[in-house]
Amino acid sequence: MQNYRSGYLQLAVVYYFEYQDKLNNSSSTHDEIETARQKVLAVLQKMDKNLPQATVPITTNDHYFQIGHLYSRIGEKDTFRSILEDLNQRENVSVEEKLKFGQAYIQELDDFESALTIFKGLYDSYLDIENLVRTKGIKKAGLTQASWDRWQKLYAEIVSSLVLTYRSMELWEPLESVLNVWLVRNPNDINAKEMLNTVQKNISSNSPDSINMGSIFN
Residue 16 is part of which domain span? Predict the structure, then answer.
């Protein structure tokens, strides 16, 4: 059955490139562009109707994500959001996949809140796992050496994703906390130090005392 789904997807991708050609062609009319978009959507909807997720589940996370991403690229953002929500509820989601989902929330849906939930969850999980490894060891923490190595390898990307999300949302105090923890581990990170200085200035300028002082002198 998955082969049938692959056939639908291959056709949808062909139509998608035709849609992109129309979209990028300045001589294309609005109706021509919309017709090309509808061709992609029709194939995807027919696939979902004939091979519904409820009865013929898409077991591969990346495969399901790519379908959602295709929906997003033709403007069907709500469908992509629904797929991302389904993916985030699965138990067999890797750290790498969660990072990708979080980035998709930002890049495709402009949804920083949902991305923050993912990145903050990964960050907290790392700190909890790290504490367990330190106190009990890798095996008693329920990990293999390979899985712990993978967590450690991805720690910087987790922090970077969380930091950029906090900064975009102007959540200065939690951003300050994350940067302080990072600098304890990486005291020579000049960029992090500069960002921390900027964050602390923002916190000071937004504090009640600063606001009151400003109103006194104005």
Answer: 1-93
Rounded Cα gap, residues 63 and 61, in angstroms: 5
Domain membership of residue 212 (yes or no) is: no
Taking the C-alpha atoms of residue 61 and residue 97, their distance in angstroms, rounded to an integer, is 8
**Residue 194 within a domain:** no
* Residue 141 CA: distances (Å) to CA of 90, 105, 135, 150: 22, 31, 9, 15
| Per-residue pLDDT reduced to its tens digit, 23-61 | 999 999 999 999 999 999 999 999 999 999 888 889 899
Q: Which long-range contacts (CB under 8 A, 24 or more apart) does 94-97 make?
A: 94/61, 95/122, 95/150, 95/151, 95/154, 95/158, 96/154, 97/61, 97/62, 97/65
Rounded Cα–Cα distance for residues 138 and 142 (Å): 7
Tokens of 181: 């923890």
Nearest to 81 by CA among 110, 51, 49: 110
3-state DSSP assignment of residue 123: helix
Q: What is the pLDDT of residues 143-179, one digit of tens each?
A: 999 999 999 999 999 999 999 999 999 999 999 999 9
Residue 137 lies in a domain: no
Verdict on whether the full-model pTM lies above 0.90: no
| Number of structural domains in the chain | 1
Return the SS3 of 198: helix
In a domain, 56, yes or no: yes
Quote the CA–CA distance of 141 and 197 in Å, as a whole number: 36
